[in-house]
């Protein structure tokens, strides 16, 4: 093919020939000389063009460079399978099964694949300096697509107006599929189809949650939004009623009896599910015997039963601001399994013999029976630790002393000290937030934590150090990503702090601890702790043990909370099996259970944060116009995020309200800088704001700058006009009807057809 009719070879034709050549021999790699020879090209200019074409095809992902100058057909370049991640702004991505780079899927090329669908994508040729792009050619497996929103009912059809980040379109619902829902109510909708030429997916109402703004409606909506169950099935409660609550002589077999040993629980004041207790007594040889007793949930919940399958699916209890959505039926979690005082209870226990220096001399793991002497709240136990006389005084003070030694040893070994407070609300009987307070970990919390950590580590070591290795459920935490740590070190340098990012694990973790100590009490404390946590890897469940970086443990698991976490039930079952010499279980099955549990844990934590955010916005909605001092907690191209010092509620000052200059976003330096006056707003800067708007529907607070505002005796000032957007958070018709994401003529036509 040395020449065309014009005497020259066009580059486009040459690329086509090269592509055809590589398709015919996909297994081998070739350099430009070999390709030129195969195509019969002898002139040096054409060979140079071949080299250019090979580099270009590599950039487009059609070829891969296996070694310098040698190229091979990229079999991934044509078709890729993976999971779709949808976005409201139309920027959808494929997460490939093979773990490769994500692939952009434009809305026009999505084939209406929904978030979470497994799809096959044809990988397009990559343009220079652009991200990989593809087109969905087949949906292999549909995810269940559930959406929460406000119902807009017309005469012969309805729409769901959703604020989902995963869907830009309203959902069309035939009139006979609204399940009695009325305009303005929040409902849960399942998408049943999305015809090729339709602008809107078609759905059906599966549950009517209630009126917008009602507390139960909003909390259930948050659960549904994250795909979490918000009610407990009646058949599970009935199954739980069949479980006997009397301990038989058969139940007592092969159990160590601790009923006469001083034992107590320590939990939050409003807790009902007590799944751990401590016992302590002095032994004749002078050692302390400390028992960590955990509710024996798996004695009552057998594998494969209705209750077990439901618990496996939920994987965790969910703790919203005003309620607990349990993993197990209430009869089990609050009654039969809960280690309530003055009741005999079955447990799985770790028993330690320790000297006065908290050195474990012996330990044993086995099933027990206990009888708790006392139920303490953390506040009650703290009072005893601080010297007040009370029940179990000697025992609590002994355990506190031993726990402090264990804690000191743990940090000396390189554990990271993230002692952060939690935002809590005092709420009335209707769920309305009355006040905000902060929950801090005190010595009583740390005492319980240290003995739970000791038990979890001991159980993990018992199985993990067994030869040959047996399949087990570990709680693992990887080392932080080097690049993230470098970015974190660069970030804190702006505040005058330093961080060691290389060296041994212990060197880095000790440097992090030093930083956390240094920022205590400073205005940037919460900000730096938050950014530090984001720089860390996420802890997950896995059958592959890589240790727990944050705790500085080589072996770690979750054994101590089986009432609220399914992985702990898994650990109890494996322990029971391995304690009697049982063979190892299937790693594939248990790894899949670990993966599911990790995913559900993440969803639960997101729902919990969303409920806190909702209550913060609800709390601040009664404080419109009030002025507060805060700190800039985030800087973006669309505005400043500010956290109020007094109550830790976070809102945004939109960049449109910074009207004294044209502000530009400096991503590297985390600031907005005025083009004319060079005034800067930096991450961590103190700032005075006014509460301008509270949008409960979006869980958003809008703030306005309040540097020069004068306030009245109630701390209020007139709200700047430009800070208030003319929209009602609950005006569902306005939000959806003119959004450009629905076609009413199409809707009427489709409703008549159906």
Q: Can you tell me about this structure?
A:
With 754 residues, the protein is an alpha+beta fold. It is built from 19 helices and 34 strands. The strands form nine sheets. Strands 14-21-20-17-16-15-22 form a seven-stranded mixed sheet. Strands 6-5-4-7-8 form a five-stranded antiparallel sheet, with no helix packed on it. The longest helix has 34 residues, at 587-620. The two termini are 59 Å apart.
Compose a concise summary of this entry.
With 754 residues, the chain is an alpha+beta fold. The protein contains 19 helices and 34 strands.
Show the helix and strand layout.
Blueprint: H1 11-24, E1 29-30, H2 32-38, H3 44-59, E2 63-67, E3 70-73, E4 79-85, E5 92-96, E6 103-105, E7 118-123, E8 134-141, E9 146-153, E10 157-162, E11 171-174, E12 185-193, E13 202-211, H4 215-225, H5 234-241, H6 249-252, E14 256-257, E15 263-267, E16 276-282, E17 288-295, H7 297-300, H8 306-314, E18 318-319, E19 324-325, H9 330-336, E20 344-354, E21 360-371, E22 374-377, H10 378-385, H11 393-412, E23 422-427, E24 433-439, H12 443-464, E25 474-476, H13 482-493, H14 505-519, H15 525-535, E26 540-542, H16 566-579, H17 587-620, E27 627-636, E28 639-644, E29 650-654, E30 663-666, E31 671-674, E32 680-682, E33 686-695, E34 700-705, H18 732-737, H19 744-753
Parallel strand pairs: 14-21, 15-22
Antiparallel strand pairs: 1-3, 2-3, 4-5, 4-7, 5-6, 7-8, 9-10, 9-12, 10-11, 12-13, 15-16, 16-17, 17-20, 18-19, 20-21, 23-24, 25-26, 27-28, 27-33, 28-29, 30-31, 31-32, 33-34
Helix pairs in contact: 1-3, 2-3, 4-17, 11-12, 13-15
């Amino acid at each position: 093919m040395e020449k065309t009719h014009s005497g020259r070879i066009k580059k486009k034709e040459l690329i086509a020939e090269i592509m055809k050549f590589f398709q015919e021999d996909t297994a081998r790699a070739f350099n430009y000389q070999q390709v030129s020879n195969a195509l019969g090209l002898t002139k040096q200019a054409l060979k140079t063009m071949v080299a250019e074409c090979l580099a270009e095809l590599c950039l487009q992902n059609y070829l891969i460079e296996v070694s310098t100058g040698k190229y091979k057909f990229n079999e991934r370049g044509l078709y890729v399978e993976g999971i779709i991640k949808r976005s409201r702004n139309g920027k959808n991505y494929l997460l490939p099964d093979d773990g490769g780079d994500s692939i952009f899927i434009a809305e026009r090329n999505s084939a209406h694949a929904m978030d979470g669908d497994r799809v096959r994508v044809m990988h397009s040729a990559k343009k220079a300096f652009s991200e990989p792009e593809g087109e969905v050619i087949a949906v292999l497996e549909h995810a269940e697509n559930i959406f929460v929103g406000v119902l807009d009912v017309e005469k012969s059809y309805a729409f769901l107006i959703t604020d989902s980040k995963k869907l830009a379109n309203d959902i069309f619902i035939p009139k006979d599929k609204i399940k009695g829902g009325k305009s303005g109510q929040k409902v849960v909708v399942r998408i049943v189809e999305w015809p090729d030429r339709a602008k809107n997916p078609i759905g059906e109402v599966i549950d009517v949650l209630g009126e917008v703004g009602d507390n139960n409606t909003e909390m259930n909506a948050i659960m549904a939004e994250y795909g979490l169950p918000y009610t407990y099935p009646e058949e599970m409660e009935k199954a739980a009623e069949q479980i006997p609550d009397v301990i038989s002589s058969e139940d007592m077999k092969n159990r160590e009896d601790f009923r006469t040993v001083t034992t107590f629980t320590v939990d939050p004041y409003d807790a009902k599910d007590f799944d751990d207790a401590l016992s302590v007594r002095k032994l004749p040889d002078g050692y302390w015997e400390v028992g960590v007793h955990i509710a024996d949930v798996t004695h009552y919940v057998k594998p494969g039963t209705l209750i077990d399958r439901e618990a496996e699916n939920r994987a965790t209890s969910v703790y919203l601001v005003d309620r607990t959505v349990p993993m197990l039926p209430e009869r089990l979690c609050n009654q039969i399994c809960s280690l309530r005082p003055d009741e005999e209870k079955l447990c799985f226990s770790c028993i330690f013999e320790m000297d006065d220096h908290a050195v474990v001399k012996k330990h044993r793991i086995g099933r027990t029976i206990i009888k708790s002497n006392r139920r303490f709240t953390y506040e009650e136990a703290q009072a005893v630790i601080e010297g007040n006389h009370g029940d179990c005084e000697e025992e609590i003070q002994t355990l506190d002393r031993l726990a402090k030694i264990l804690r000191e040893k743990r940090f000396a070994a390189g554990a990271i000290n993230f002692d952060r407070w939690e935002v809590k609300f005092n709420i009335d009987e209707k769920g309305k937030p009355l006040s905000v307070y902060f929950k801090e970990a005190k010595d009583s919390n740390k005492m319980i934590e240290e003995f739970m950590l000791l038990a979890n580590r001991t159980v993990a070591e018992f199985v993990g150090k067994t030869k040959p290795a047996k399949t087990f459920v570990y709680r693992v935490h990887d080392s932080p990503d080097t690049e993230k740590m470098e970015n974190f070190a660069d970030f804190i340098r702006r505040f005058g702090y330093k961080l060691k990012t290389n060296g041994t694990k212990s060197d880095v973790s000790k440097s992090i601890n030093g930083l956390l100590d240094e920022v205590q009490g400073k205005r940037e404390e919460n900000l730096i702790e938050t950014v530090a946590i984001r720089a860390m890897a996420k802890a997950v469940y896995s059958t592959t043990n890589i240790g727990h970086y944050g705790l500085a443990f080589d072996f770690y698991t979750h054994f101590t909370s089986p009432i609220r976490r399914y992985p702990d039930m898994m650990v109890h079952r494996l322990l029971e099996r391995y304690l009697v010499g049982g063979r190892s279980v299937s790693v594939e099955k248990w790894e899949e259970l670990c993966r599911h549990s990790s995913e559900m844990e993440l969803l639960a934590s997101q729902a919990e944060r969303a409920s806190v955010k909702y209550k913060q916005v609800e709390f601040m909605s009664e404080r419109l116009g009030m002025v507060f001092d805060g700190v800039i907690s985030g800087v973006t191209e669309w505005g400043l995020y500010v956290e109020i010092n007094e109550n830790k509620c976070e809102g945004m000052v939109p960049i449109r309200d910074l009207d004294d200059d044209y502000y530009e976003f400096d991503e590297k330096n985390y600031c907005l800088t005025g083009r004319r006056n060079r005034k800067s707003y930096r991450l961590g800067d103190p700032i005075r704001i006014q509460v301008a708007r509270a949008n409960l529907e979006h869980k958003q607070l809008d703030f306005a700058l309040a540097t020069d505002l004068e306030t009245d005796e109630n701390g209020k000032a007139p709200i700047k006009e430009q800070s208030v957007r003319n929209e009602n958070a609950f005006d569902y018709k306005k939000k959806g009807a003119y959004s450009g994401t629905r076609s009413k003529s199409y809707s009427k036509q489709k409703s008549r057809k159906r």
